[in-house]
Amino acid sequence: MWLLLLKFLTAHFLGDFVFQTKKMVQNKKNPVYFLAHITIHTVLLCLFLFNDNLWWAIILVVLSHALFDWLKLILVNKVKAPVLFLGDQLLHILTIIVVLIVFSTLRISFDFINQPEFWLILIAIILVTQVTAVLIRILLSPYQNHKKITPPNDTDQKVLFNAGKYIGILERLFIFGFVVANFWEGIGFLLAAKSIFRFGDLNNAKERHLTEYVLIGTFLSFGCAILVGLIFNYVLHNLL
To answer: Which end of the chain is more exposed for a tag (fewer CB within 10 A), N or C?
Structure first.
């Protein structure tokens, strides 16, 4: 039953993100705080599912949650934080699904894989995130020597690793979503926001060639995302 899955997920997200304080996170190696966190999960599950006769499922979910959190504490200095966080959450959610499949009538259907809409969305995401990035890099290759900024007063400026790549992917995903939702105003807002933050820095750098390089890249990025969104809408509404 999907209602049971929603109850389990609600308890999980409340326990991990609402009722787990910053102090509890920072001191989770302390047995008292660790036990408090697990107790909160247990209480939430009991409150939400006391009438569903799934006590064995609750026990297994709580024990697995404690095990995964303990493993997370061991790996905290060995695995990158984003990978550890996503892996931890994925394990918790998969455990809930598996337990419900075993102890209830919940059945997960994969029929969506045979739907053309699924493959259309997958292709669009690949085009917007990866294919477009390669295309832009190739088109801008003649101008690669002009993308480096000369720091003012010859002082080094620290930048985030691969930040530009991820900013481009996120902005194209947003634009694709705006086009699919027919929310064209969102594209204007996104362009304005980027102009304020990005081009303000470029203006301070006083390097016209770099500004032109970024403008070309921005327009290519926006244009490709809009084009993919328009093609997606046309195929979805006229060909499928």
So the answer is: C
What is the Cα 7 distance to its own chain's centre?
23
Q: How far apart are CA 185 and CA 188, in angstroms?
A: 5
Q: How far is CA 166 from CA 23, 133, 158, 170, 172, in A?
A: 31, 10, 17, 6, 10
Tokens, residue 148:
């480096």
Residue 162 Rama label (left phi>0; alpha psi -120 to 50; beta):
left
How far is it, in rounded angstroms, from Cα 58 to Cα 38?
A: 12
Smallest Cα–Cα separation from 28: which of 19, 37, 16?
A: 37
Q: List, for residues 30-85, the tens digit of each pLDDT value.
A: 999 999 999 999 999 999 998 888 899 999 999 999 999 999 999 988 999 889 99
